From TrEMBL:
CDD domains: HTH_XRE (cd00093). SUPFAM superfamilies: lambda repressor-like DNA-binding domains. This is HTH cro/C1-type domain-containing protein. It comes from Streptomyces hygroscopicus. Residues 23-65 form the HTH cro/C1-type domain. InterPro entries: Cro/C1-type_HTH (IPR001387), Lambda_DNA-bd_dom_sf (IPR010982). Coiled coil: none annotated.
Length: 412
């Protein structure tokens, strides 16, 4: 597969423009002539002012066009535009300058935040990001309008908005922005004086570390978040158990990625205990947890530990009625874990059937996931027709990037 640096500047511009933007549309967005656009794409002429205008219109850094940095994986034009606005919102609000937007009341901010989490758990990450930027600006505006001494709830709203921004950035692979947003969320949660929010942010930071392959730090933070809010089961509210259960489950996930079976088993035990105590799935503070969540996530944890038999045994116990209680994103993630377990068990066709079902039911979600490509790489003896069909859905193999072959440098 060609590397991003293998292309010429003109080829990179054309690839970034894609089929979504015609040359005429790009000319209109930049204020440049079509002839200038054509010259840039043909590597005949690319001045610095033209480069700057093209980068802004295509929602990328100039370093991406000149090949110093590759574009983000699975990012389309609308994703890049959304992430650019999200980045501006995160960094601008952190400067301490009041945003020039209307400040909704706290109830309205809470309502919008819940809408954001609903979209998130449906797997509509681009939509969440488009909502998160104005939410953060509005929450910051409310904070500045609150009287001194009455800012705790507003700080909480700001913390929630930063946390959503961090989660979107982390999923999109924009790690620097994820680190920045979760750091601002931590400060806001501390100013809110809310221990539960602080634990949620700590867990969020742990997830950023996990995606950045910083496993020891991720486990340390995940454990801290769980311990800080561990409730007494006899007195705990469903909300407290939801947050605690999701935290210990995540600690089990991190432990499994480190290959620590004993630690993972201990946290899984606590997760199942919390789920059993709840008796049903409950949504709270942007998360969903209950007995079904504990069981389905245990499948992925056992897969990570190489305990395929345990994973398949759990799958046999989980019904469609059970998974129907989960959020859409959690259902899709469970399907991928199931497909991975089947692949590890050399159930090639069953694995591809499960994977294909997830890809077809949630293409908007699947394009932000790396696991489908891993599953396909494991499947070695499936039906060739089925394998090609699934590979086409995820773009596996040489055509994965969707880029054309680069023109040989000697011909440029």
């Amino acid at each position: 597969m060609p590397q991003w640096s293998d292309y010429s500047n003109g080829e990179r511009i054309k690839i970034l423009r894609g089929t979504e933007i015609a040359q005429g549309d790009l000319a209109e967005k930049t204020g440049l002539s079509i002839a200038t656009i054509q010259a840039a794409e043909q590597d005949k002429r690319l001045s610095l002012p033209t480069l700057m205008k093209l980068a802004a219109a295509l929602s990328v850094d100039t370093s991406v066009i000149v090949g110093q940095q590759a574009p983000r994986r699975a990012m389309r034009q609308e994703d890049r535009t959304m992430m650019r606005d999200l980045s501006h919102a995160v960094h601008d609000t952190a400067t301490g300058t009041p945003p020039v937007v209307e400040a909704p009341d706290l109830d309205e901010l809470a309502k919008i935040t819940r809408q954001g989490w609903e979209l998130y758990w449906k797997g509509h990450y681009s939509e969440v990001g488009s909502l998160a930027a104005p939410l953060l600006r509005s929450a910051a505006a409310r904070l500045y309008e609150q009287p001194v001494g009455e800012q705790s709830e507003a700080w909480g709203a700001v913390a929630d908005a930063y946390r959503i921004c961090a989660y979107v950035a982390n999923l999109m692979g924009v790690r620097d922005l994820a680190y920045a947003a979760i750091g601002h969320a931590q400060r806001a949660a501390e100013n809110a004086g809310d221990q539960l929010r602080q634990a949620l942010v700590t867990s969020g930071r742990s997830w950023v570390y996990l995606r950045d392959a910083r496993l020891p730090e991720a486990l340390e933070l995940a454990e801290k978040a769980a311990v800080d809010i561990e409730p007494r089961f006899s007195r705990a509210t469903p909300e407290q158990l939801t947050v605690y259960g999701s935290h210990v489950n995540f600690a089990a996930v991190v432990a499994s990625r480190m290959g620590n079976k004993d630690r993972a088993a201990d946290y899984l035990s606590q997760s199942h205990a919390a789920g059993a105590r709840m008796g049903r799935e409950v949504r709270a503070h942007g998360t969903l947890f209950g007995p079904v969540s504990a069981s389905t996530q245990a499948v992925g944890i056992n897969v990570s530990l190489g305990q395929t038999g345990k994973a398949l045994a759990l799958i046999e116990e989980i019904s469609k009625d059970d998974t129907g209680q989960l959020s859409e994103a959690a259902q899709h993630r469970y399907a991928l874990d199931k497909a991975m377990a089947q692949a590890d068990a050399k159930m090639w066709d069953a694995s591809l059937d499960t994977l294909e079902g997830a890809l077809r039911s949630a293409p908007h979600w699947a394009r932000h996931q790396a696991l489908p490509q891993v599953i396909v790489s494991k499947v070695g003896r499936a039906s060739t027709t089925r394998l090609r069909r699934v590979s086409k859905l995820i773009g596996a193999g040489p055509a994965m990037s969707g880029f054309p072959a680069p023109t040989p440098k000697t011909a440029l």
